[in-house]
Fold these 2 entries.
Entry 1:
Amino acid sequence: MPAKNLIKPRRMPRQGRSRETVEAIVEAAAQVFERHGYAAGTTNRIADRAGLSIGSLYQYFPNKDAIVVELARRHITDIGEVAWPALEALAREMPPLREALAAIVFGTIELHARSPELHRVLFEETPRSDEIQALMWELFDRSSRLIGDYLAACPEVSVRDPYLAARMVAQVVDQVSHGAVIHPRDGEAPEVYARETITMLERYLTELG
Amino acid sequence: MPAKNLIKPRRMPRQGRSRETVEAIVEAAAQVFERHGYAAGTTNRIADRAGLSIGSLYQYFPNKDAIVVELARRHITDIGEVAWPALEALAREMPPLREALAAIVFGTIELHARSPELHRVLFEETPRSDEIQALMWELFDRSSRLIGDYLAACPEVSVRDPYLAARMVAQVVDQVSHGAVIHPRDGEAPEVYARETITMLERYLTELG
DNA sequence: TCATACACTGAGCAAAAGCTCACGTTTTCG
DNA sequence: CGAAAACGTGAGCTTTTGCTCAGTGTATGA
């Protein structure tokens, strides 16, 4: 038992091949978690699937959770890159309310539907790290603000606080989409619920009293 | 390596003390999962906490998952026993819509708030078994039906399909309550969102166009 | 009373998962 | 070229976890 207690800094990729290795690990992790779930998504299996030795994996990730966090971070980033331009377009082009809501609802459903099983594993089965939670809140806040910008400028909308309403919209749409896509039920068309959600939000936002 | 391959049937509790043992296991499991999460909620830890040997635990539960399922079943049953009478009372006593919605929203929040961390572990972190999923849907269906009975008889409600609307109400209230209670944010009063949810649903259900 | 079924014990096994490290291979760059 | 740095390898160590089983205590009823 030698007295070597050197800190082992995680290797940073410099050359091209090592960057490819990191990509391979992340992609393999996505597939493995999607197929086997969080618990059975072992580091050995990930390395196997990536066509690498387990040692290579630990050159770039200190532990299993680091891989999950990286995966979640990418997933959230991808969502933002699709959602934000679309939401910014609303405040710029100012479509009718019903159209805007349809875009938000169907857009959110589509985002959830991209890889539902991976999404489920990452955001339900995996113990939430503070880091991922912070990223999710950031996503939610920014989305809400953009929706609020649209609502505030929309003449049909007659709600007191459009930014509070926007948070309600974002919350409801996200949760309902999540439920519909991630835990679908056999005899139920998700479109019926999507349409009804749009109707509900429309009536909420256009106070006709 | 002897040739004994006898089937070992799980023991059913007959005497009083064994039934107490089962209770102790379930209660200990609740505490351990609440404190340590699903993965770190090991059978040894549960037995320890229950003041029993690990052997006793395996007399009554074939594996770890069986304990989780039993726990979830009890949790769902408990919720039903509170929720159903309350929802039945609505259709019987026919309070004004806003009062009914307030009862539903605050009641649901209270149910979620009973043991939020255990709730989170059971219904997020734990891989969903088909059995638990079925129980959850049963709970949802029955709640929706009862809400629908109220909505169908409520003169203020002017929605086409009250039972579809009821499913929307149940879905939204459950998801929003879950989000608010299980993943609370620092600077946010959940009551603001609760009130706004009530307002949203009220406007949705009373089509004034 | 005492035989029998019921109940409980806990050392420890088998399997699996996370992770290390000493060593070989490839790339870079003077 | 050739040395140093970057990169890749995989047998196997360590720890943990789910779970067993041979044996000991405890209640029950004939």
Entry 2:
Amino acid sequence: MRISKLFSKTSKNWPAGEEATNAKLLIKAGYIRKSSAGVYSYLPLGWRVLNKINDIIREEMNSIGAQELLMPTLVAKDYWAKTDRWEVDIAFKTKLPETSHQSTEFGLGWTHEEVVTDLATDFISSYQDLPTAVYQIQNKFRAEARAKNGLLRGREFLMKDLYSFHANKEDLDNYYQTVIEAYKKILQRLDLNAKVVEAAGGAFTKEYTHEFQVLDPSGEDDVFYCDKCDFAQNKEIAKVGIGDKCPACGGEIKESSGIEVANVFKLGTRFSDAFNLKFKDKDGSEQAVLMGSYGIGPSRLMGTLVEAYNDERGIIWPESVSPYKVHLVSLAGDNNMVAKSAEKIYTNLDKSGVEVLFDDRDISAGHKLADADLLGLTWRAVVSEKTGNKIELKQRSKPEIKLVSYEEVAKLVK
RNA sequence: CGGAGCGUAGUAUAGUGGUAGUACGCGGGCUUCGGGAGUCCGUAGUCCGAGUUCGAUUCUCGGCGCUCCGACCA
């Protein structure tokens, strides 16, 4: 992609009014635009980042046997009424216009247990149909009283929600662990260091549930955790405090704020009971299906990554989500030889399958380099009179600059 | 929803009860060309409504919007 053709542009000015780091940087760099509080457009570069996050999530979901589908955003009142969730105050509600002569009311989907459970009644009727799991990646809508922190708390946001169905508790428990491991892998691949934190079950379950908290000052949650082992509890339910001994390993308990990027719940039969989702067991007896629900927020992850990885010059994307692998900068000036050579490098890298963002604009060197740091792609390759036949290669996260050949660039960034 | 702050060109910021200024951007000219270049010309603006006033972008009230603190929050 040529920056000269890119739909978005970087700005020299910081956006007014934004305080959250992720909002300031993502808007300044042209990754996103706010359309209203908590509601964002993802511009071409931002959409690429978001899709890379989605792709990682898809791979890990598929690898644990979950199947992707897509459920509706408009969910009729009847669904929510069956589980007494029509009256929740975070639901956006809407209906058809008077002229339609239909009075159906809808809630914009803020979660999909009702819809998925109803769907499951069409296909699950025997123990032989179990276990099974489906997921979707879809915009969710929540009428948050106060949207804030850029991508970290929106009214419309992207979520991957997975639902699993089981014949017995042991199977549910096992799959719950399997999903936790899959989520850990996703977060590792995103270079995010998250704690698996015990949390309150809320309306869903009396059991504790688990949240994945990225420890970061910008987070809204308070987490007590052990610095030696995996023990961690949300402050809401914590039975430990700062300086206490870890009940698991004897280490020291610390406190941090955390960004909740994912959560997992054992739903039991709450939804299967409401929608009469049953199966016939081997012995012919009829039993309620056990369910689990597991969410992870790609758009919130994107904001979290910016909070975690930035410096005074801009964003520093982990390689796994960098919108393009290489930011190729041509500092040709009026030197046609250099300009031609940069064009050739761009074309060749592009042909060999390397994702390149090529700064072919006729602007000053300083402007280009500043933009490269702001955008934060993993690799920066500079071609200029100074570099001769070679290319300057630098990682955004590191100070070292190497002079390498074209072949080495293609190899290094693969 | 309670509290605080803020709404001025496309963006970011000044300022004034009486002709609204600067920077960036954008269009054009010349000079530049390794850390957001210089210069010249051009371009474009007071959130909406009501009130006070001879006159309101400025003062008052209301609305709408945005940010932050709190409450809320799968």
